[in-house]
Design brief:
Blueprint lengths: L2 H20 L3 H17 L5 H21 L5 H18 L4 H18 L4 H19 L3 H19 L1 H14 L3 H8 L1
C-alpha cells in the first residue's frame, strides 16, 4: 500500500469505529461510513475504473479493522462494509459487477487478518453484495456470481482448508452458489 492509501485505510477504520460505536445499527452504520469514504476517495483524479480496486481495497481493509476493533456483531458489520463498498462504487458510476469479486475477496482476507472467522465473513460479504446490488438496482445475478468467486478466491489466499470451508458454507447459505462453485472451481 502506498502512503496515501494507507492513510485512507486508517481514516476509514477510525470513521467506522466512531460511527459503529455510536449507534445500535451496526450494518447500516458501517455501510454508510464505507460508502462515504469510498465515494469521496474516488471523486476526481483518474477514472473510476483505474482507481476503484485500489481504493476499495484500502477502504475495506480499514473498515474491517474498525469493525473488529469494536464490541459489535462483527458479521453484521462485515455485511455492512460490503454493502457500503458496493454502494460507493455505484455512486461514482463504477462497474459494480467487476468490482464485487475484489471487494468480497479483500473482505474475507482482511477479516482473517483480524483473527475473526473468515468462513462466516465470506457468507456475510456475499449477502452484503447481493443486498446492496438489489438496493441500487444492479445486476444481482452477475454480482452474486462475482461475490461467490471473490469469497472463494479470498479464502484460497488464506489456506486450502479455509477455501473448502467457504465453498461448503456458501453452498448451504447462498442461492446459486453450488452451480457457480461447480462451474468455476
Amino acid at each position: 500500500m502506498n502512503e496515501l492509501i494507507s492513510d485512507l485505510a486508517k481514516q476509514t477504520r477510525d470513521a467506522v469505529k466512531s460511527v459503529v460505536e455510536g449507534t445500535g445499527d451496526v450494518a447500516t452504520s458501517a455501510a454508510g461510513a464505507v460508502s462515504k469514504s469510498l465515494s469521496a476517495a474516488l471523486q476526481g483524479g483518474d477514472t473510476v475504473a483505474d482507481r476503484v480496486v485500489e481504493v476499495a481495497t484500502d477502504v475495506i481493509t480499514g473498515a474491517i479493522r474498525g469493525v473488529a476493533d469494536t464490541s459489535v456483531d462483527t458479521m453484521a458489520g462485515i455485511q455492512g462494509v460490503v454493502q457500503g463498498a458496493i454502494k460507493g462504487v455505484s455512486m461514482v458510476g463504477g462497474d459494480v459487477v467487476s468490482a464485487t469479486g475484489k471487494i468480497v475477496s479483500t473482505t474475507v482476507k482482511s477479516t482473517a487478518d483480524t483473527g475473526k472467522d473468515a468462513t462466516q465473513a465470506a457468507v456475510s460479504a456475499v449477502k452484503g453484495a447481493i443486498a446492496a446490488t438489489e438496493e441500487v438496482g444492479g445486476d444481482v445475478s452477475g454480482v452474486t456470481k462475482e461475490a461467490i468467486i471473490g469469497a472463494v478466491n479470498g479464502a484460497s489466499e488464506i489456506s486450502e482448508a479455509t477455501a473448502d470451508s467457504v465453498k461448503k458454507v456458501l453452498v448451504t447459505s447462498i442461492e446459486g452458489a453450488k452451480e457457480v462453485i461447480d462451474t468455476i472451481f
